[in-house]
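Async update (no meeting this week)

Hi team, since we skipped the sync, here's where things stand on the single-chain job. The sequence we agreed to prioritize is pasted below, unchanged from the tracker. I ran it this morning and attached the output directly underneath so nobody has to dig for it. Comments welcome in thread, and please keep replies under the output.
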Amino acid sequence: MLYDVAIIGGGPAGSSAASYLSKEGLKVVLFEKKKFPRPHVGESLVPAVNRVLHELGLFEKLEEAGFLKKYGAAWTTFNSNVNASHDFKGMEILEQVDILFNERSNPDAFKEFTFHVDRAKFDELLLNHSETLGSTVFQNAGVQHTDFSNPDFVALQVNIDDEQKEFRAKMIVDASGRDTQVGSQLNLKIADPDFNQFAIHSWFKNFDRNEKELHDYIFIHFLPFHHTWIWQIPITDEITSLGLVTSKKHIKGRANDLEKIFNEFMENNSDLAQRIKKAERIRPFTLEADYSYSMKQMAGDRFVMVGDAARYVDPIFSSGVSIALNSARFAKDSIMKAFKSGNFKREAFQDYEKIIGAGCKNWYRFISMYYRLNVLFTWFIQSPKYRLEVIRFLQGDVYDENESFLLRDMEETLQEVEKNPKHIWHNLLHNIQEASLQQ
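Output:
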């Protein structure tokens, strides 16, 4: 059988691509190498996903499933020296800031909230939904190789329940996540020179969120080490996901000491450390690697990459699932044009590459500025000039090719502060330890 589209991977990018294309009437087959449900990181969404969820008929399903609603986000810093002497234009640099998503109007968000999700349940819900829309789904189906040598179709060698089979499709969508099936096979993957990160994470029961009205927010706790932070995500009323993200150098050679590394870093935030000690860890610690990479191209003759298979950026602003779902949305438009024209060359997908490239670039610049600004990020959130533009980025509304005045001004501010040792903010740019964690 010749399918219209074969999709590699059944995570949010692959399942939503399958749903979109099946709704358009294409004959879609999807291969997921694991058996769902399975745990996964990336448990907090941003409002930019709401449009996709609505278009695919999933938003109500998420509400019915009881996922916690997410109304905002908050950040804490480690800097005990932040005080009124570090003000600028009448505003202090704060140790904690927060935002509400509904402070900025966003028609694509539909609601004033999005969701925190148990990814095992969330991903299974999305995958099953694609089947109800007509996609053919195989689980325990690992794609071993893709063959582009025939000008009329792509051949896929697939191991399904330990049996080798061949499938053919007019084109493929690579949604293989950090396996980067096509990118690795075609030697398109580029490691990121700046964000060489690892993550250690687990679930904790009865963790005291200690935030009163902000108990259902995602919290990002910034630690005094280069590119290091903690995520705090409410999964249920009783369960909280906590994860440490840090530079590879802090974990290298210590992969068997995950709990020890996790606790060592937590000691840099004494309040957080005490709350964790009183909670019950209910899952083993898990290590995630291969953070942050790009591709030389996100599409080619008879293929398109979506989600993490196309680009993976440090997920400090919950960007992963948002890019996954929206890349599927944008890919659908280019794919349908390709089928209408009968042209499956890379040029047919240039609009997709352009818009996703712009979005990923904006995310990357924003994250880079956040790390370099460190505690000064709180000033931009407070500023009447920048607050709504910051919230726009935090909503995931980043697919704009025009230059953002926020990113431009962040970069200009950094240059000004870095060049002037007498600037009142200068020392605050240099309080992230570049050395390894002190034992």
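Quick observations from my side:
The radius of gyration is 22 Å.
Residues 80-85, 430-439 have pLDDT under 50 and may be disordered.
Reply here if anything looks off.
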